[in-house]
Amino acid sequence: MSDELSVPVYSLGQPSRRTGLGGLSLKTTIVGGAGFLIFLLCQMAGMQKIGYFIVLPVTIITALLVSANFAGRTLAQALEMNGQDMRRRSKGEHVYVAGPSSRVPGGRYRLPGSLARTELLGGVDALNNEFGVIFDRPRREATVLFDCQLSGQTAMTQDERNDITANWGRWLAGLSLSGDVVSAVTVVNTRPGTGELVAKEVAATVKDDAPWIARQIQWEAARELSQGTPELEAHIALTFKVTVSDAQDTSFLDLIGTRLPTLYEDLAWSGIQATPMDEAAVCARAHKFFNPASEADFEELTVNGVDHGLEWEDVGPAWHQTDRNVYHHEGCASVTWEMGSAPRSTFEDTLLGGLIAAHPRIQRKRVALCYRPYEAGQGASRVEAEHRDAMVAANSSKKIRSASAEMRLEHTEAARRAQARGAQLGRYSLFVTATVSSDEDLERVRHDVQQLGAQANVRLRTMTSQQDAGFVVSCGLGQIPWSKESTSSLAGQ
Questions:
Q1: Could you tell me which residues come within 8 angstroms of residue 106 by beta carbon, excluding any fewer than 6 positions away?
Q2: Which band of pLDDT confidence, cut at 50, 70 and 90, is reported for residue 2?
Q3: CA-CA distance, 151 to 158, in Å (whole number)?
Q4: In this structure, what are the phi and psi dihedrals at residue 426, rounded to the nearest 5 degrees?
């Protein structure tokens, strides 16, 4: 096969980690070294019993807690999260009730969880397009949503696909240069179609003076073709770190409005037709996630050109209940998975196609790909530190080094070369949410989603004891879990 017809493959890389002595993590090495130093001091002070029966056992237990992995997290993190979940359930905080009979201020239907403190602001960009901003005032973070029309499945040559993939990488790399972009979350949502858009298209094309039989055929064909046909919605949520002087300061809206046209117009080179979503569109998108029964109503209002009049303070659900592995809301049940491990081998640019595409047995499915850029200078220093650490780990033993150490050294060397060519460093995460109605088989949907993840070479892990947080993250409304960690940093690896 010639080089022009060959299909390029990519490598996602390995997660960042620091290695200490003996192949152990750096944190485990620090804990062991501190414990050994205290043990020596006890020996020198004549407190041998304290050293043997207190210091050494505590050091060994602590090292196991921060090094042993359980379901992708350290044992200390798992224990801390389970304890937090038990305390939440004992206080009844896993159940949320909104509305006039609730304790929500003003009797509103506010969004739950970390979205409860957000507010929605509006602005106009440099091209006179209105946009909505989800503003998290305590964290000084502003999120703008771009409504996207994807063209990834259209017929194109391999060279065109390569160009689109490269331009998407350049767009993401550009987010690192400004230094104020917190995250970019791409959400692709599939849901059953209502037929309203097809009916509008038929009404616009069929003439009143056409023969009756022709008009009837058009209406029946539209009705049959739209029944059960899945529809795809996609948006990109860009979160900026902003500066405000007081509670009434909204000057950052003008700064964001100046930058937005360049951001969403450049997406056209990546095969994405993007436009900023105004306040009404943001409210509708958020409410449909929590209340899927309202999808037909919003689509009918959109077709008729009528404003829904829903405010940000009322887009949340009337109630929800968080169980250990299921999130119940508005007569539906949702399950969210997180990416347990990225593809370990090389892959093509169509890897996530099956996971994102509509599935005949899953009516509602949402995939959120989170990208968190490092600042340009910080990324270069991290790559160099990772490479030095990988070299030490690979050459620390006189025995034949392991394949994993060689792969890590190869990945870090490739990252150094990419940095030298102008690439930027970032972190990727993936979340998948499936929503079913009360009469659907949830276990069957679980199995189907796990199989889709396996086909994409991605290991999905159910977000145990944090289904409500996972649901919010997969909505792509500016909330990401890493900036709001509930576990101590000492418990991490």
A1: 313
A2: very low
A3: 14
A4: -155, 170
> Is the pLDDT at 3 greater than 60, yes or no?
no
Output the six-digit token pair for 6.
């060959």
| Contact indicator for 239, 142 with CB cutoff of 8 Å | yes
Question: What residues contact residue 479 under an 8 Å CB cut-off, 6+ apart?
Answer: 113, 114, 115, 136, 472, 473
Cα distance between residue 389 and residue 371, in whole Å: 24
pLDDT at position 6:
64
Cα 119 vs. chain centroid, distance in angstroms? 21
> Tell me: the pLDDT tens digits for 59-79?
988 888 887 776 678 888 888
Task: State the pLDDT at residue 1.
Answer: 38
Residue 326 CA from chain centroid, whole number: 18
Mean pLDDT of the chain: 84
Per DSSP, the residues of 470-483 read HHHHHTTSS--SGG
Whether 144 contacts 256, CB under 8 Å: yes
Residues 16-36 have pLDDT tens digits of 666 666 667 777 888 888 888
Q: What is the mean pLDDT of residues 224-246?
A: 85
Question: Which of 105, 145, 311, 110 shows the shortest CA–CA distance to 233?
Answer: 145
Strands 332-341, 426-437: pairing is antiparallel
17: which residues sit within 8 A by CB, 6+ positions away?
25, 493
- Chain segment 125-184, per-residue pLDDT in tens: 999 999 999 999 989 999 999 999 987 667 788 888 888 888 998 899 888 888 889 999
The answer on pLDDT for 378 being more than 70 is no
Look up residue 226 and give its two tokens. Answer: 């739209």
Torsion angle, CA of 244/248/254/255, rounded to 10 degrees?
0
Nearest-angstrom CA–CA distance, 190 and 169: 25
Tell me, rounded to whole angstroms, the distance of Cα 220 from its chain centroid.
Answer: 40
Structure tokens at 293: 């029964």
Unique residue bearing structure tokens 């200078």: 377
* CA 270 – CA 161 distance, rounded (Å): 9
The domain limits of the chain are 68-193+228-374+424-491, 389-423
Instruction: Decide if 155 contacts 243 (C-beta within 8 A).
Output: no
Residue 253: its H or E element: helix 252-266
Other beta carbons within 10 angstroms of residue 493's beta carbon come to 17
**d(Cα 224, Cα 222) in Å, to the nearest integer?**
6
